Amino acid sequence: MSAETGQFDVIVVGAGLSGLYALYRLRERGFTARVLEAGSGVGGTWYWNRYPGARCDVESVQYSYSFSKELRQEWTWSERYGGQPEILRYINFVADRFDLRRDIQFNTRVVSAVFNDETNLWSVETDQGDLFSATYCIMATGCLSTPYEPDYPGLGDYQGDLYHTGRWPHEEVDFSGMRVGVIGTGATAIQLIPVVAKQAQHLTVFQRTANYSIPGHNQPADSEADREFEANFDARYDKARHSFAGMSGYSSPRVSALEDEPAERNRYFEERWASGGGTFAMLTTYRDLLVNPEANDLAAEFVREKIRSIVKDPAVAELLTPRNQPIGAKRLPVDTFYFETYNRDNVSLVDIRSAPIERVTAKGLRTSERAYEFDALILATGFDAMTGALLAMNVRRESGPTLKEAWAEGPKSYLGIMVAGFPNMFTITGPGSPSVKMNMIYAIEQHVEWAVDCIDHLRSQGLDRIAPTETAQEDWVEHAREVAETTLMPEADSWYMGANIPGKPRVFMPYFGGFERYWQLCNEIVADGYRGFETSGPHDLAANLTEPRKDPVPALPS
Ligand code: NA7
Prior knowledge:
8-stranded mixed beta sheet, 558 residues, 31% helix, single chain
């Protein structure tokens, strides 16, 4: 039996970039809040993903909170694309700077969240036996936080060191002198492989699908440019807000890749490849790149040609060359000498599309062709993205279905921020929002601000319940589906589509209508009296936010 641990206005699940900002914002508005975090520290994605080479693919100055001028001016980045250790230091700096830790309970995983219609409260139970109640829940659980481990027969028998990139140990792992196997060639593996290859005696990469990748040309931060960015911050931020992907500094795409002469097009692609602007530089070359297969193939062929020119062994180059999938329809990785790594004598590539892995053995693994032995095996096999963490929590309404049941055919939400039938629950960068298709940190800030403004609005109106109507939700889901279908996104077997998880419904989960449009819509909906939402209350005095707490909130050890 759980003991009643405390009642709050808001329970926030997760202490990553979303949860920390939610706590900051809630406190600012005078709400009581407790953050529950499974890890032993802040950072979320950047706490767990400590694998060698982990790095952000958005430039550091833009992958920083915008909300506090002081914070922006107190922190300087050392590299153009921040590495995981520096990003984690930044997040810890934010937690200390705003004294956030005292309201965070670490090492605590939420196991269920149940909404009771009569009390108008969420009961949130944890694996530590706590039972919290709160009028509102903010699910700041991240889009890539539930690692996916393939169900290989024999995985439990493996006697070497086994890692998943999304649950990397805190201690440094040294692969010197080891035979190492890596399964996967997604964005994570593409960052990890060049680093591990430098240490390992031999590295064997098991590839199911070849991937495109763009060099980041990472370099020390340009302090002059970063100072200028800050000096012009308002204008830069405004540009980002009016952009498709929440970023500034990329020139507008040209109209069509089909309109430029081949030489000019090649020069333009070459310029973007060399710029180190990575994913966004390449995908914003032409306006029709992600909607017209012919235009897309011109960019894809440019990258294929790059692979052939970098990788010396033609057979390896051929295997590394992606075919039959549009470039950018899967997350386009940004790398540091990924393709070059296959020119090393101590790296080999195994095609597990033609010879699949049959089982993991005590010493390594066996494909349909042969056995391999390793001292260490690394699963870079990705995540149950966007819905994994939400569904793992057993979210339900006491009188209604579970979230799992409600999302049996794929996630359904209104704006990616609330779910019909689940009142007072906000999903930060949830499925149905632009989230992973834009600069995450600006997406997070916009969602958190929207959610906290909403709770504040309800309080000011003497209300304490809000949920989207089924109709508004259906319309949004349909709109998001239509938008995705005008693009090439549904053509790839990506985690955006849920295609990486056996049995997961195939639905394009993020909203791909662009940040500017989405932001405006969110604001219009509020201006229109929270169009598409139903509000009511007050339902219960104990849950009324304007009433003093009946039981004082117990202090947690700091
Ligand atoms: P991804 O992008 O989902 O990549 C996972 C990789 O693992 C990919 O190459 C998969 O091959 C491979 N994979 C997954 N399951 C299997 C099985 N069962 N057998 C063999 N190979 C498998 O995850 P990442 O962690 O790299 O990146 C996630 C995001 O983090 C990234 O997009 C950035 O936004 C940050 P497949 O392509 O499915 O054939």
